[in-house]
Amino acid sequence: MADVTRVIADLTAEGDELDTLVAPLSVEQWSTDTPASGWTIAHQIAHLAWTDYASLTAISDSEGFGRMLEEFGKDPLHAVDKVAEEWAAQSPEELLAKWRDGRARLAAALATVPEGTRIAWFGPPMSAASMATARLMETWAHGLDVADALGARRAPTARLKNLAHLGVRTRNFAYMVNGQPAPAEEFRVELKAPDGDTWAWGPEDAAQRVTGPAEDFCLLVTQRAHRDDLALVAVGDDAQHWLAIAQVFAGPPGGGRKPKGAA
Predict the structure, then answer these.
(1) For the whole model, what pTM was predicted?
(2) Which of 64, 117, 211, 223 satisfies CB 3.0 to 4.6 Å to 256 for a cystine?
(3) CB under 8 Å to 119, separation ≥6 — which residues?
(4) Domain spans of the chain?
């Protein structure tokens, strides 16, 4: 079981790092296009701010979150884009203040969730540690889009272990959202951490194996890079197929990114 205090600390650090990237931006720069089609930097931060608000609602107001679920269910394919557009219409100053307030309140709320409690969500209900991990994943992934838009490079950190763990644990979810049966056997995943250490999951003697840099695995499962541009190695047909459909985020199958240099 993940240590919720540690994950919350990692989530806070990830948000703070992204904050330092966007805080100095001019009003014009907030309208810079990111690699996500139709999304500017403002859309990226708006999405994070709204999802923090949704997470807070799920923790503190079950009826209010139920209404949120009902509203999203009316148009599940476009609801995320619609909300991002609405929240991005605020001034950068208002949006930044709202995001800062929301992520601070969420960190505090997650720390008070009783052990064993399952929090309702748009996917399966989650523990506080799992919700914190999911928020960290989104902060990293959308922060990467912001960094790419600005031509900045964010160095990988040990915080990626949270995301990699989530990527491994959501293997069967990726099959489910693609309408495919998941393999019965466990896979072995061995990833090289930013500090040169090895992070590993699954039986050492598993026939289906995935190896490579942890950052590349995280880029793959968040669909922030095409597999052709990543140094991941899959052994076994099932492992090969998993890397083609892997996704760590909730919702329908993602479209992914094109290979570098593709039209």
Answers:
(1) 0.94
(2) 223
(3) 55, 58, 59, 113, 125, 126, 127, 128, 131
(4) 4-150, 160-245
